[in-house]
Design brief:
Number of domains of chain B: 1
Low-confidence stretches of chain A: none
Oligomer: heterodimer
Largest interface: A-B, 27 and 26 residues
Number of strands of chain A: 29
Number of strands of chain B: 5
Strand order of the largest sheet of chain A: 3-2-1-29
Mean pLDDT of chain B: 93
CATH class of chain B: Alpha Beta
Helix content of chain A: under 10%
Largest sheet of chain A: 4 strands, antiparallel
Shape of chain A: globular
Distance between the termini of chain A: 7 Å
Largest sheet of chain B: 5 strands, mixed
Structural class of chain A: mainly beta
CATH architecture of chain B: Roll
Mean pLDDT of chain A: 94
Order of helices and strands of chain A: EEEEEEEEEEEEHEEEEEEEEEEEEEEEEE
Number of helices of chain B: 3
Strand content of chain A: 35-45%
Strand content of chain B: 15-25%
Helix content of chain B: 10-25%
Structural class of chain B: alpha+beta
Number of helices of chain A: 1
Strand order of the largest sheet of chain B: 2-1-5-3-4
Chain lengths: 394, 98
């Protein structure tokens, strides 16, 4: 029987929750990077002991951290922990350097995007929102950043190069920041096609590359957003998250600002599947590991009230690929609960009975070891949770 | 030898105590102190000043001898007491709640 490692990052540090395959008793380690805001942490499927973390701060900027021992120890790639470096022969400390590629040879000019007031504003790097390790190489890893762009490292995070075809897409001047900033928050690698990558940006929409990141196309046909001047525009939609079952990579599910959507053709077109949800605003969406038509969302009251409706924390599950949803409440608070669940804060494991995990703005991490039928808190007093990922260990 | 006092989070990042000492060749200025600090502790690159513009991060300030040096030119000389090692050069994070 395997085990799981749940990677939880919060506004004040990171935590690693470990259990055996029963997922009933948990060991908690942390806080790692105590006091720092950690936006995302994700392990490599090629080498599960390889974990990357995005440590970010309004004071000190962006720091990339890496562990090669399953999260026991951490270092900045290229600058090993505790190493007293010197000017000659020293590690370079370049792992934190995210510079938009505007070079004549490979880059796109550093143009402008739409600002909150409708004026144009230059691209400015702020932080890494999402780290996505390659499915085939432990040293290859992608980073989705704010202001929206996709970076790639081929040396385990020591250095980063922008895939500038995305930022340089002709629609760039129409992209605009959502309330959380103009972030590239979702990166999905297609296991059946190594050159296909999906990304999503708030608020530009979803994009796909079929050539390894050189060129990109917006995949927002069918999205309808009343809050933008042209509700069916090619770009400008506030996509909150996209999820895919790796075994059926042409089917995508999306939680948009409002609306839960589904695509059966790799994002070429979308249809709404919000169905009987109490509200179709939300952030997270995920898909069962073994049942590609079983989907999970957590409805949030509205874009003005970022908490669950009626004071009840309810995960909604559809076993029909959307439209028909059932509330999952067993083990979840059903009164006086006003938490939010952010876009990267839900994950699924791949054990026989699929485990589902999510973290809340109130610092709780809930787990289900029976596909959502019942839930229990692993921890309930962490700082506000920003993201949750899970590794299924052999 | 220039004494530099770092805020807590940068001490953790650099695996050092509150104060480090760096050698600065030539004129001792804000820029040359940070250059020397980053050369000895490259994990601090990008944390005190921006990687590209080399501008001080807005929530950090530079102090020495009771003076706020943050708005001085990066090439301005620092007080003699810092050069002699009598007083430290302080990197201070803005105080903010949360």
């Amino acid at each position: 029987m395997g085990g799981v490692r749940v990677l939880v990052v919060t506004r004040k540090g990171a935590f690693i929750l470990s259990s055996d395959g029963k997922r009933e008793k948990w060991d908690v380690s942390g806080p790692h990077f105590a006091g720092w805001e950690i936006y995302h942490m994700k392990g490599s499927s090629v080498d599960p002991n390889r974990i990357y973390a995005s440590q970010t701060s309004g004071w000190f900027g962006q720091v990339i951290q890496r562990s090669d021992d399953g999260g026991k120890t951490w270092f900045q790639p290229g600058t090993p922990a505790g190493e007293q470096t010197t000017p000659d022969g020293a590690p370079k400390g370049e792992s934190n350097k995210f510079v938009y590629d505007a070079s004549p040879e490979t880059g796109k000019p550093l143009t402008t995007h739409q600002w909150y007031d409708g004026t144009q504003h230059p691209w400015e790097f702020k932080r890494v929102w999402h780290i996505e390790p390659s499915l085939v190489e432990a040293d290859t890893v992608y980073a989705g950043v704010e202001d929206a762009a996709l970076f790639r490292s081929g040396d385990g995070g020591k250095s980063w190069q922008e895939l500038s075809g995305l930022r340089g897409h002709g629609t760039g001047p129409a992209w605009q920041p959502g309330a959380g900033g103009m972030c590239l928050h979702t990166v999905i690698l297609d296991p059946s096609d190594p050159k296909r990558i999906y990304i999503a940006i708030s608020a530009a929409g979803a994009f796909r590359t079929d050539d390894g990141g050189a060129t990109w196309k917006p995949i927002n046909k069918g999205l309808h957003s009343l809050y933008i001047p042209n509700p069916t525009a090619e770009v400008g939609h506030c996509v909150h998250h996209v999820a895919m079952n790796p075994k059926r990579s042409n089917v995508l599910f999306m939680q948009k600002h409002w609306d839960v959507m589904r695509s059966d053709n790799s994002g070429d077109s979308w249809t709404e599947v919000s169905g009987n949800l109490p509200t179709d605003f939300g952030f997270v969406v995920d898909v069962h590991s073994h049942e590609p038509e079983t989907v999970y969302v957590v409805p949030i009251k509205s874009d003005s009230e970022h908490y669950v409706p009626e004071g009840k924390l309810r995960v909604y599950r559809s076993k029909t690929g959307g439209n028909e949803w059932e509330a999952l409440t067993k083990g979840l608070p059903q009164q006086n609960c006003y938490v939010n669940i952010l876009r990267d804060a839900m994950a699924v494991d791949t054990l026989d009975k699929c485990g589902i995990y999510f973290g809340t703005s109130g610092g709780q991490v809930y787990a289900s070891n029976d596909s959502g039928d019942s839930w229990s808190p692993i921890v309930h007093d962490l700082p506000g949770v920003l993201s949750v990922e899970v590794q299924t260990l052999k | 030898m220039i004494r530099v006092v770092l805020p807590q989070h940068l001490r953790t990042l650099a695996h050092v105590g509150m104060e480090v000492q760096v050698d600065v060749a030539g004129n001792v200025t804000l820029r040359s102190i940070i250059d020397a600090l980053e050369a000895d502790y490259p994990m601090l690159k990008g944390t005190i000043r921006d990687h590209v513009t080399l501008e001080r991060r807005p929530f950090l300030r530079f102090f020495a001898c009771g003076e706020d040096l943050s708005l001085e030119s990066p090439d301005s000389p620092v007080p003699e007491a810092v050069v002699s090692g009598a007083e430290p050069f302080l990197v201070i994070g803005a105080i903010a709640g949360g």
